[in-house]
Model the fold of this input.
Amino acid sequence: VKTVRTVADLRAELAPARRGERSIGLVPTMGALHDGHLSLIDRARERCDVVVVSLFVNPAQFGPSEDLSAYPRDEARDAALCASRGADVLFAPPLEEVYPAGFASEVAVTGGLTEPLEGAARPGHFAGVTTVVAKLFNMASPDVAFFGQKDAQQALVIRRMARDLDFGVEIEICPTVREPDGLAMSSRNAYLEGAERGRASALRRGLAAAEAAVAAGERDSATLVAIARAEMTSAGIEPEYLELVSADTLAPMTHLNGAEALVAVAARVGRARLIDNTLLRAPEQGNETGRT
Ligand code: AMP
Done:
């Protein structure tokens, strides 16, 4: 893998591929790579001729009281992992390459996709995300960019931005990769200490309980959320939010109808603020008790 640190070098590195009409895949990350990130790189490797991984811990998406300074960083390890998965380019710019002196621009998605859930809990977060992702799209001009379902709202917001602003980038959303006990992989799992690690798996257990309740015929949102919450609180986890919303619009749903629903949760476990989610869809009517 070739590491480049400037936009000019990135463009120079990608120029032959662009001239040769070879496809470019981009995997944006903040580093501290784990199997979730690597699954995105693998998917990019499958689909694209040239795979670019970006590594940039973006200050603009961290709130003032968040974990920017503590965020794990190990570029040498990340580069070795990228190489082992066959990535072609690691783009690891310094701060001033992304935000030169006098930087004064913002790209923001407004309205219903950015207001609930993470948007309510982390003011300014999504504007920070969309600004840096817009810049990465302009820097690399990828054909396809790969994001994780783990950050479901982020993926919807980025897809909206790419469509609204005609970036000409296809956004592929890849499945959440989990630890054996169900905990969604996250760079922030490194903050979990001692017993916190075991307790954190209750997030996934709660989501799985909601899935099981749907399979058993439950359709009421409040009941499904209560079932998920009970699993979490029994492990001493009080969710910051736990909501059942439309998987397309993130609008609240009171009842599972034919449309796909997203159950999204955020919770603090020790020093770590963790998020997770699952997609729910009620089976067709007449087939809803699982008796078939
Ligand atoms: P991050 O480095 O946390 O900004 O994540 C970079 C990308 O990896 C984002 O598109 C995330 O959604 C994705 N990602 C993070 N964790 C996982 C996971 N456990 N499974 C799949 N994708 C993930």
Q: What stands out?
A: Residues 118 and 167 are 24 Å apart (CA to CA). The radius of gyration is 20 Å. The chain has a mean pLDDT of 96. The chain has ten helices and nine strands.
